[in-house]
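User: Can you recover a sequence for this backbone? Please restate the input before giving your answer.

Assistant: Of course. Working from this structure:
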C-alpha cells in the first residue's frame, strides 16, 4: 500500500522548518546549511535502515556530497527550469492551486509518494536505495520552488495545506487502488529523478 500523502508532505514541512520560511524567501538561501545537513542526515538514516554502514563518517560525507550535487543540478536549471521539468500526469486529474509554483510542487511531491513506497516496500535492497536517493532529490526540487513561490506573494502555509488537502488525498487514493495509475506515475517520474541525480554519482 502507498504511504499517505500526509506523511511525505509533513516530512517536507519539517525540512522547511529547519531552514526557516523566512530564509527560503531569498533565492540565494533556498537551502541553508542547516537544511542541507538535515537533508544529508535524513538520506544517511534511510540508507542505514537498509544496511548498516561500515564507515558511518564516510556515509555522512557521501550523502552531503549527493545533496550538494542535486543542489547544483537544480541551480543549473534555474527556477523556471524546475517549473518546466515538473512531471506531467496525463492519466490523472490533478487538482490545481491556481499557482504555477504550487502546482509544480504537487507534481514533484506525487513522485515522492511512489518513491516512498519503493523505499519502504521494495524487496531488493538496491531498489530501496534508489527510492531513498529519489526521495532526497525530489524533496529538494520541491524546496527549490519555495523561494520563487514566496517571492511572488505565496504564503508558505499554503504548501502543506495544498499537498495534504482533500483533492490531493483523492489522487493518492486513486493511485493506491489502481495499479495502472501507479505504473503511470512511476513512468512519468523516472526521467526527472534520473536527471536530478545525474551528477550525484
Amino acid at each position: 500500500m502507498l504511504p499517505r500523502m500526509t506523511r511525505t508532505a509533513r516530512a517536507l514541512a519539517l525540512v522547511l522548518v529547519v531552514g526557516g520560511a523566512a530564509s527560503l524567501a531569498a533565492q540565494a538561501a533556498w537551502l541553508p546549511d542547516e537544511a542541507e545537513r538535515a537533508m544529508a542526515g535524513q538520506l544517511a538514516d534511510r540508507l542505514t535502515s537498509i544496511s548498516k554502514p561500515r564507515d558511518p563518517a564516510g556515509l555522512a560525507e557521501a550523502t552531503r556530497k549527493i545533496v550538494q550535487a542535486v543542489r547544483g543540478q537544480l541551480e543549473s536549471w534555474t527556477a523556471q527550469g524546475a517549473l518546466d521539468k515538473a512531471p506531467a500526469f496525463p492519466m490523472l486529474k490533478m487538482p490545481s492551486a491556481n499557482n504555477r509554483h504550487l502546482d509544480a510542487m504537487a507534481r514533484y511531491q506525487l513522485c515522492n509518494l511512489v518513491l516512498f513506497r519503493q523505499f519502504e516496500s521494495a524487496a531488493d535492497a538496491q531498489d530501496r536505495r534508489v527510492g531513498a536517493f529519489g526521495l532526497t532529490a525530489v524533496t529538494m526540487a520541491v524546496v527549490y520552488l519555495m523561494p520563487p513561490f514566496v517571492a511572488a506573494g505565496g504564503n508558505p502555509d499554503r504548501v502543506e495545506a495544498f499537498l495534504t488537502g482533500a483533492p490531493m488525498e483523492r489522487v493518492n487514493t486513486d493511485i493506491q487502488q489502481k495499479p495502472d495509475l501507479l505504473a503511470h506515475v512511476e513512468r512519468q517520474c523516472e526521467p526527472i529523478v534520473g536527471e536530478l541525480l545525474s551528477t550525484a554519482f
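That completes the design. The two ends are 30 Å apart (CA to CA).
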